[in-house]
Amino acid sequence: MMSKNSSRTKIVPTKVTDWVAPSFDDFFGNTNIFPSTLPVKSSGEANRHQKRKDHSSVPESSKKKVLARIKGKSSSIDHICDHSKQNQSQSQNEPWVDKYKPGTQNELAVHKKKIEEVESWLKAQIFQRQPKQGGSVLVLTGPPGCGKSTTIQILAKELHVQVQEWTNPISLDFRKEDFKDAFNYESSFQMLPSQAQTVLFQDFLLRANKYNKLQMLGESTEADDKLILIEDMPNQFYRDRDSLHEILRRFVRTSRCPLVFIISDSLSGDSNQKLLFPKEIQEELCISSISFNPVAPTMMMKVLNRIATAEASMNGEKFAVPDKTSLELICKGCSGDIRSAINSLQFSSLKEYSSENNLWSRKKGNSTLKSNTEASRTKKKKKADKTLENQEIQAIGGKDASIFLFHALGKILYCKREPLSDSEFPRLPSHLSEYERDILLVHPEDIVEKSHMPGDLFNLYLHQNYVDFFTDIDDVVRASEYLSTADFLCSNWNSRLTLREYSASVATRGVIHSNTARAFAHCQGGMGFRPFHKPQWFLISKKYQENCLTAKSLFSSFCLPPLCLQTQLLPFLAMLTNPMRNQAQIAFIQDVGRLPLKRHFGGLKLETLTDKDLGMPGFENIDEGDLSAMQPLEVLVQLEKNQINETEPDEFPLTSSQASGSELPASQPQPITAQAILEEDELKIDEYDSD
Amino acid sequence: MQAFLKGPSSVSTKAPASKERGAAAAGGSGEGRKLKPIPWVEKYRPKCVDEVAFQEEVVAVLKKSLEGADLPNLLFYGPPGTGKTSTILALARELYGPELFRQRVLELNASDERGIQVIREKVKTFAQLTVSGSHSDGKVYPPFKIVILDEADSMTSAAQAALRRTMEKESKTTRFCLICNYISRIIEPLTSRCSKFRFKPLTDKIQQQRLWAVSEKENVKVSNEAISCLVQVSEGDLRKAITFLQSATRLTGGKEITEKVVTEIAGVVPKETIDGLLSACQSGSFEKLETVAKNLINEGYAAAQLVNQLHDDIVEREDLTDKQKSVIAEKLAEVDKCLTDGADEYLQLISLCAVVMQQLTQNG
Amino acid sequence: MSLWADKYRPCALGRVDYHREQAAQLRNLVQCGDFPHLLVYGPSGAGKKTRIMCLLRELYGAGVEKLRIEHQNITCYNKINCYLNSLYSDAGNSDRVVIQELLKTVAQSQQLETSTQRDFKVVLLTEVDKLTKDAQHALRRTMEKYMATCRLILCCNSISKIIAPIQSRCLAVRVPAPSIEDICHVLSSVCKKEGLTLPQDLARRLAEKSGRNLRKALLMCEACRVQQYPFTSDQDIPETDWEVYLRETASAIVSQQTPQRLLEVRGRLYELLTHCIPPEIIMKFILFLKTAICFSFREVAQMAAFYEHRLQLGSKAIYHLEAFVAKFMALYKKFIGRWTRRHDVLKHH
Predict the structure, then answer these.
(1) How far is CA C346 from the centre of its chain?
(2) What values do phi and psi take at C295, rounded to 5?
(3) DSSP state at residue C233
(4) Bias regions of kind Polar residues — which residues (chain A) (predicted)?
(5) Which subunits sit against B, judged by 3+ Cβ pairs under 8 A?
(6) How many angstroms separate the CA atoms of A602 and B335, rounded?
(7) DSSP string, C281-333
(8) Which of B111, B302, B344 lies at the smallest CB-CB distance from C308?
């Protein structure tokens, strides 16, 4: 065992091919690779040694089985091939997720069209390849647990395509200490530096390209079409995107087989897809991208039903099969994540739990109890039902029900209401009738919370989009006042963390209430779809700060306070000809001192918010203060760089400074930055005389 | 700072009372660099308790202690510049004479560090030094030391609480004298341990007398109006008045000090300007108001100062009902708060004037 | 080539163009070679810094000229005196520490040539009103501590924001904005030195338009020169782009009051902000417009004051600006509604 270990690690090329081999994974990642998914295996330091020794005696097949469980979705193709057949014979403790892993397209809980899309792409890339065509790349995105990987694996199986998957090599830095005592020779163990990961990745890509997978365990060698699957992106690339792009460029040029990336959207993280594959790269390399939606409830119900019946027929004595309503609840609670749905199904129907003190029904009982009291207290049956529902979802949910920002905003701004049903509910006195509203169907606080965004950031999104939903200026006045108050609440950094939530509450409720056009259930229709946009404020305030700093550093010789500098000196310098000093200053003056007059409302470009967007968590922590800490010098350098590109050398000398009369010297460059953001005027407004 | 230390009236090894320092800055170096300038407030501080102007009750009590009676812990409170610090310093000097003075008096003011730590360490160690009633020169001195805590109302309440224990423990050897402007900011346990003396604001007449005396001694030419103006702008604060007098002397460089110079130094908005503003409000014309307000800002007057003066003016006006006054007063308070928060002066002024205008024109 | 405003800046207290009496007083003040801490305040463009520089020149001779360049570099201060600009404006909340450290280093640094001149250094702090209260208190302590080696000259637009203890420690010098006549006078004399003839009417118009801000007047005059020479008394006075732009924005507000228009105005506000126009200036400018005065002035004034205050305290200016604009629109709409109704009634009669 020991010798095996050392030989493997020392001979790097072998290793590369080995990453696809499961035994190696197991070997390395004994306890630490999947610490979160594998609590059972986490054993103490003391017996690790022992365990390692034992490994050699563990029969290959059982090792494989364990692995399949550990790795779940990331297990390689050879497991999947015979997985469904093994299902029956495997132990009952196996997670249902793996037990009921779909084996055919029909079993997949993914929309037919999506599967077709992927399939046709694969077919096109593999079977209809032009001889000269290079490698092609596909990016699959979607929330976790919507069946991205499974789709690829099933399709690959059906098309008889070999899958080669990249697995991140495990850098052993964090285990260095442990090893030192246990194995002396480990000190000579080659650490994998982070750069190496990139190199190895590149190696992998190009190699996988050239050679077939090593033949292992007697698998068939017929399939010589293959596809490379990358789910586990080397971390290095998040920091250094350029190197990824470089590798991809090489890959596309030289390779012959398709490459598939699978990237999960996460609710809290940044959108990885955007980060790793910006538009330019996507276009340059013809990367296709297909995004998966969360699994639809009907589909999920189908799957859950199938599993439930299968389990019932097989192990009826051991499992209490949940009824239809509970299945529905599970369905709702997991917000489209089929993996978590199956997990919670398995958990909730375990007999041990259900028989002794029944977690499941207790929860239910709890909430019905609550609903009873509530119903009797307020007699608002419907509302009680709503709360009951919410509670139950949360109670069972293997997962927090979270809402995409897009929907969260929609819920606030479209604010669904419900007519007041009966006269039992006390009405406002007549002098307050203008504040009369129907019952809201949404809980603004809940929505904000589920959108996973700090309140002040949410407010910004709200602010960016609320005006479109108003028709009366007086309503806007009220809404804007609430937003202003909300900002005021958040202003003190000392108390910001606490007040954030309140501020969001003030803003959302304020905006909802002040929109009289949507005050009642009956006037909800006819709104139509309004696009949402991302807040421009970040960009604006960043630019404002940058410009101010640049102004300060460029014109420091005037010794003026910023206010004078920005409102008096710069604009006038833009009109004067003589006192130009250097190119950076001239460029800045033209850029900042001049405003695009006579061009009505060329507004700033709006970035549309789609249902996949997750806000800008990157900005969360950047407050104005941090922005101001940006180096003015950097800006300056940037500016000068632009400058060099922008100015033609022959126009350069400022000879005209004296002679010129009313016109600006031709050599002064056109404003750059501000114009760049400006979109050509799309909105023409009728001329109005200025005073 | 050395200036004070060398000055005959400088009182302790610690920094002298903070408020005097501004004065020191203004205190001319008219005598040139060899002779360090002394702020007049220090120079003309009362040397003995008898010289303290206008605070008869306090003086009477203190005199008794000079005649041998024990001294209670003291708490002096009252508006600034009424002689609180001067009184206790004069008393201490009379008690101990210039020599022992330094050993036996500890003075701490707001400029010094005065957290709990300091109270515990510094005051304690000082208080624990025992002193004997007699001294090497044979004279009999009172057997206690004095700790002067100037500007005690700016001490944190935790520090004040710490002081309470110390006061009790060291009562045998040490007397405390707390000086503050607002007695409400001293915690109750402390006030109950001291005999309280309220210092009345000085009357105009007394202030004028003092100012005349000072200007006579310093050979300053000053007009009658200027003196009464000084008294007026300093609002009962004699120290401020003397400081202004000294600054004015330096600015004019030997010429007669006029009323104008005084108002200028004090940063006070002239009466005419205020009247102009009010009459613009009275007129009901926004254009007029706007120009007046703009001018006011352009002249560089501080809006905060204007708010204060407008307040005085409004309160005394007879053509306004109480209700109207209260509406304006509320707005004044709001504007004052906004100004401290850093809001724009012009906008605040305009909005204030708009309210005043509304109230004034309602009348007619 | 430098700007007229810099080129013709007077460099001795005896040669300033206006507030002569005050200049004489300042000269008295420094005659003996020493002076108290000073607090110079007054509106922008009134000549505060000109006077301070004159004062320093009076003290130190022509050496101050060189310091003007040196002061930008914070680490390299002169042995004789030190002239610091508003380096703390980017320090934000930590300005207290900056101030303390700064004064400490300056005040404690030994003078290399003690023989030459004064035995104290001068530190000039501009924009003191932008300091937080904390920093001001720190400043007050430091003022006392280093009184022997250091003189402070504080410079700010308004003393409303300066804490009382600092005010009482300094000799306050108010520098009012020059009067219209003063500005006319300066403009003519500058033009004369440039070899230009400036019509009286134009000078007056320039002065009035500048809002008693001499720097602005000079800049405008120079812009006029670029635009058209010889001057005519009725020539257009060039306005800065942002002012024109704001005016356009204001008329956009006035011409239509709908949420849609508000969105467009928001775009314009953003545009202004990216061009370094501070939000409070935008708000003030809208208020200054004549249209604002003709209808419900009181409410507009109240509201402007209210939202400007919010602006100072809040963290994201656009909320408050937009709330202000929305309110302005609503008020205007109401006003127009009233006006037309009255008009209709009159017609019927």
Answers:
(1) 48
(2) -125, 150
(3) T
(4) 364-375, 654-671
(5) C
(6) 38
(7) HHHHHHHHSHHHHHS-HHHHHHHHHHHHHHHHHSS-HHHHHHHHHHHHHHHHH
(8) B344
Residues with Cβ < 8 Å from A404, sequence gap 6 or more? A267, A451, A611, A612, A613, A614
Q: Which residue of A has its CA nearest to C245?
A: A597
Report the distance separating Cα C120 and Cα C107, nearest Å.
Answer: 9
Among the partner residues C28, C176, C293, nearest to B253 by beta-carbon distance: C28
Distance CA A483, CA A477 (A): 10
Count interface pairs B-C at CB distance under 8 A: 161
CB–CB of B49/B89 below 8 Å? no
Report how far apart, in Å, the C-alpha atoms of A604 and of each of A150, A536, C274 are.
42, 8, 11
Q: What is the 3-state secondary structure (H, E, C) of A476-530?
A: HHHHHHHHHHHHHHCCCCCCHHHHHHHHHHHHHHHHHHHCHHHCCHHHCCCCCCC
Print pLDDT tens along chain B (364 aa). 333 333 333 333 333 333 333 333 333 333 333 344 667 877 888 877 777 777 777 788 788 777 776 778 888 888 887 888 888 888 888 888 777 777 778 887 765 666 667 677 777 777 777 666 555 566 667 778 888 888 787 777 778 887 888 788 777 778 888 888 888 888 888 888 888 888 888 888 888 888 888 888 888 888 888 888 888 888 778 888 888 888 888 888 777 888 888 888 888 888 888 899 988 888 888 888 888 888 888 888 888 888 988 998 888 888 888 899 999 999 999 999 998 888 888 889 989 998 998 888 875 4
Q: Do A490 and C69 count as a contact with CB atoms less than 8 A apart?
A: no
Q: Please identify among residues 554-613 of chain A the ones whose CB lies closer than 8 Å to any CB of chain C.
A: 556-559, 561-564, 566-572, 574-579, 592-597, 600-604
C251 with A689: Cβ contact below 8 A: yes
Task: State yes or no: cis peptide before C230, omega within 30 of 0.
Answer: yes
Q: Which residue in C90, C229, C245 is closest to A595 by CB distance?
A: C245
CB atoms within 10 A of CB A389: 14
Q: Which residues pair with A263 in a beta bridge?
A: A141
C17: helix, strand or coil: coil
Question: Which residues are CB-neighbours of B51 under 8 A, at least 6 positions away?
Answer: B90
Cα separation of A516 and A435, whole Å?
A: 9
Q: Locate B291 and state its tokens.
A: 């120009």
3-state secondary structure of A124: helix
In this complex, which chains have at least 3 CB pairs below 8 Å with chain C?
A, B
Q: Is residue A175 a contact partner of residue A182, using CB atoms and an 8 Å limit?
A: no
Distance of CA A48 to the CA centre of its chain: 37
Cβ contact C29–B343 (<8 Å)? no
- Distance from chain centroid for Cα B255: 28
Closest residue, chain A, to C70 (C-alpha) = A557
Instruction: Please name which of A488, B308, A563, A554 lies closest in space to residue C129, comparing C-alpha atoms.
Output: A563
From the list C160, C172, C297, the residue facing B304 with the nearest CB is C160
Instruction: Decide: helix, strand or coil at residue B13.
Output: coil
Half-sphere exposure of A465 (CA within 13 A, CB side): 29
ipTM reported for the complex, 2 dp: 0.82
φ, ψ dihedrals at B74, nearest 5°: -115, 145
> What residues 242-271 of chain C have any CB closer than 8 A to a CB of chain A?
242-245, 247-248, 250-252, 254-255, 257-260, 262-264, 266-268, 270-271
Chain A touching partners, 3 or more CB pairs below 8 A: C
Residue B220, min C-alpha distance to chain C (Å): 15
Q: Which residues of A touch C270 (CB under 8 A)?
A: 536, 540, 603-604
d(CA A317, CA A161): 41
